[in-house]
Amino acid sequence: MLATLLLSAAVTAATPAFDATQLSGSWSDSFNSNSVCDPSRHLTRMQLSDDHARLAIFNDRMRSSKLGEANHFAATVVAETERSLTIRYDNENRLDDQGKPVEWQLIVVAPGVYRWRQADWPEGKVNGVVGIRCSP
Question: How many CB atoms lie under 10 A from the CB of residue 49?
């Protein structure tokens, strides 16, 4: 009976939620050897909704991406762990190998450092961008 209770508790234990304070501050993307937090670089702020259902990304200037040109991007959070958020951008037009809208994982790899990866890539593969926190 004790084993059954322990197994039941282990199965129903919730995955620890992502701590939104990990996203606090201003961030910049590093993709070369230039100074990351130089004032000439664009800065980004991120805000996770209280219910962890939405992620808003605010840029300090217009930015071009495969989603278009904007200073604000929004996404639905489809999964989370202690260190990562899996998101689907609003108006995502790119499709994965199964023909579904691409989902992205933002993974906090160290305090003040994140990496992006497409959710369907092999485990451990990330893109070339390193997010660095420039200010609290």
Answer: 13
Can you point out the beta strands (E) in the chain?
Answer: 26-30, 44-48, 54-65, 68-80, 84-89, 104-110, 113-118, 130-135
Task: Kindly report, residue by residue over 23-74, the tens digit of the pLDDT.
Answer: 999 999 888 778 889 888 889 999 999 999 999 999 887 666 666 666 789 9
Question: CA end-to-end span of the chain, whole Å?
Answer: 50
Residue 20 identity (one-letter amino acid): A
Q: How many residues are there in the chain?
A: 136
How buried is residue 25: exposed, middle or buried, by Cβ count under 10 Å (0-12/13-18/19+)?
middle
8-state DSSP, 32: S
| pTM (predicted TM-score) | 0.82
Q: Which residues contact 46 (CB under 8 A, 6 or more apart)?
A: 23, 27, 55, 56, 57, 58
